[in-house]
TrEMBL record:
Chief location of this protein within or outside the cell: membrane
Protein family per UniProt: Belongs to the NIPA (TC 2.A.7) family.
Annotated protein name in UniProt: Probable magnesium transporter
Taxonomic lineage: Eukaryota, Viridiplantae, Streptophyta, Embryophyta, Tracheophyta
Native source species: Phaseolus coccineus (Scarlet runner bean)
GO molecular function: magnesium ion transmembrane transporter activity
Amino acid sequence: MFSTNLIGFVLAIVSSAFIGSSFIIKKKGLQRATLNGSRASGGGYGYLLQPLWWLGMVTMIVGEIANFVAYVYAPAVLVTPLGALSIIVSAVLAHCMLNEKLQKMGMLGCLLCIVGSTEIVLHAPQEKSLTSVDEIWQLALQPEFLMYAASVIAVVFFLILYCAPRYGQTNILVYVGICSIIGSLTVMSIKAIGIAIRLTIEGADQFAHVQTWIFTMVAISCIVTQLNYLNMALDTFNTAVVSPIYYALFTSFTILASAIMFKDYSGQSVSSIASELCGFITVLSGTTVLHSTREPDPPVNTDLYSPLSPNVSWYSRGNGEPWKQKEEEESPFNLITVIRQDHFK
């Protein structure tokens, strides 16, 4: 069983490298699309015409395939937290390619992510043996998991229909929250599909079961939703801010969903569970430190032809008393001296 966890660990590392790179490549593609006046955050899809964005998509697909196979061989509580390594890759590449400076405290955050991930790997639970997709379906029909899935769907609809139009451009938790929460259902579906494929290769055809296709449809729907709102988040906020928050929320909800559905922690000792939780907290601390050391993107004016708001200028009368004038008012040059901003330096 250790060998299967090892395979999952290696694949998770490969996945993190590709996915971390894809954030940066897609961000570059989104920036080029913005130059043409089409912003994803504004509902535009001009980035679909950018080869660089598609290169980022290919890179992400390769990473997700590696991640997909990793879930077949290892439990979600092992594979998902290793996604922290993609944050490190993303932060380093953002420093090199996007001029998003990585401070010394950010380097400490990267180190904490590595230490926490190592702790999680050392105390990861063993994967339970599942023999058919019907068995996974029974796990998905457990009352506690059905309650979780219903809660996720309700919250996601609330965020999409109410919060996104009002607060999506100003609150990063809206777009990232949608991706993260729905992502937990994506992982559960992908794990079911992966096990079905493995069993089919071994000789037990699982695609004759309607449950396999239900998991497939759920996975496709969730992935499309994730990609759409992840593009909006990347186009609106700094990459180094999006990546850690997305990782922290996505990992938390995925571990919760996996613990409810697959009972990952069943049979583990209290010390192992505590050690893994400590490792996860260490990773979250690292992402928080990394996030706190990054500067947000400067605001971008999406309407180049919008009229400027009236400027307010401050002048000084001859007697030294302040006098305020709006832009549209005529300047009494015979009475005032313009005080430039340089004079205050």
